[in-house]
Design brief:
By secondary structure, the protein is mainly α. It has one domain. It contains three helices and no strands. The chain is globular, with a radius of gyration of 12 Å. The model has no long low-confidence stretch (mean pLDDT 87).
Amino acid sequence: MILSVVADTSPHEITADSPCIGHCTTVLGDDVCRSCLRTFDEITRWVEMSEEERRQVNRRIALEKLKQ
């Protein structure tokens, strides 16, 4: 039920702000940062991504957090 709410959320309700909290674990060799849940590729490409791409990443992260 909650997953469908996030999946159906308006694109404007999910921000394009960086989820980084300054504790990146990809420098320790993780493929996905344990702090912000972005992949190494998403982290390195963040500044190049469009606002919509950033929102898509943040929507995926929101879904991941609900699964935990």
